[in-house]
Amino acid sequence: MSEPTARVLSGIQPTGDVHLGNYFGAIQNHLALQDRYPGECYYFVADYHALTTVHDAKALRQSVRDIAITYLALGLDPARACLFRQSDVPEVTELTWLLACATGRGLLERAHAYKDKAAHGLPASMGLFCYPILMAADILAYDASLVPVGQDQLQHVEMAQDMATHFNETFGAGAVVLRRPEPLMSKAPRVVGLDGEKMSKSYQNTIGLFLEGKALRKLTSRIVTDSTPLGQPLPTEGDRVLALLDLFLDERGREQVRGWYRTGARDGQPFGYGHAKALLAEHIETHFADARARRQHLIDHPEEVDRVLAEGGRTARARAIDTIERCRSTCGLR
Length: 334
Ligand code: ADP
Ligand code: TRP
Known about the structure:
There is one protein chain. The chain is mostly helical. It folds into two domains: 8-191 and 302-331, 3-Layer(aba) Sandwich (Rossmann fold); 211-287, Tyrosyl-Transfer RNA Synthetase. The protein contains 14 helices and seven strands. It has helices at 20-36, 47-50, 57-74, 91-100, 105-109, 112-119, 126-141, 154-172, 213-220, 240-246, 251-263, 273-287, 289-300, 302-331; strands at 8-12, 41-45, 81-85, 146-148, 182-184, 265-266, 269-270. The strands form three sheets. A three-stranded parallel β-sheet has the order 1-2-3. Strands 4-5 form a two-stranded parallel sheet. The chain is elongated. The model has no long low-confidence stretch (mean pLDDT 96). Bound molecules: adenosine-5'-diphosphate and tryptophan (TRP). Adenosine-5'-diphosphate binds next to helix 1.
């Protein structure tokens, strides 16, 4: 073990547009942590993981760049956080194998994400089944101590903890060869989607960060509500529009909107779900306005993005090589 200081690591799959769930559940935390642990944050685009569902090379390359652009537009600072492509560090696939040899099959059979995807009719490849081992390798390869993720990934981080322990016990006679990571959740670990289920690219219920104008209003108007008529008191418990609005509001703002909900009126005028949805669209537009502009600049200058990813890949790979050398030696491969 070389690194006793905190090290932060997280990944996001390039499987579609980044949405409010990704942002409030994970990315906002990633950005805050670069202030707290400058030089110790590693964030990557999980393109190996995406191969479990994306089978179109061109689309995958495009999505990887889109995610990198999104992070940079939202404020990731390459001087404080390392942004890279997972597949620029092929050592993680070797670590995946070493971990697999110390991991019981039962552990993987208990993975909710796998069971959930299989239940939604997604074909279950071995890649999907072994997904948590690759994710554990991602975390353990960089000696990460903190893994900021949404609630849906909690079990995977716990599995990484188990795999680190099993590896240390199986091959290292209990010595700490791999560091135990801890999950870190944001204040919004489970953001709901248009239909009230967890917002997820897999469930087509997302609201993208950079939508604006009519397209955004059309989408927010699709959020499922009950049928309380305009001007009547609206329920504040379990309402999806309110849950999404809360993400953008401080304590005072939340109380104010709850007042409009409880009375069905705002400034003496009737207030209904249509108004709440329009208000949500306004908040989304304003909140991401600066990032939207920076995003456009990066779309027009792809070479800036490629440079950040290439440099990030070199930094991350050097870390992972240290770890894999240590693991090889522990297992007797050298
Ligand atoms: P998706 O489920 O849409 O495919 P990812 O699996 O790529 O999203 O998730 C990237 C990060 O965003 C992870 O840390 C994940 O936990 C977080 N995240 C995804 N959806 C949500 C959500 N609805 N609420 C909170 N966090 C989420
Ligand atoms: N599985 C994560 C997701 O779908 C992405 C991911 C891959 C990840 N490797 C990781 C997240 C390592 C945190 C740490 O969201």
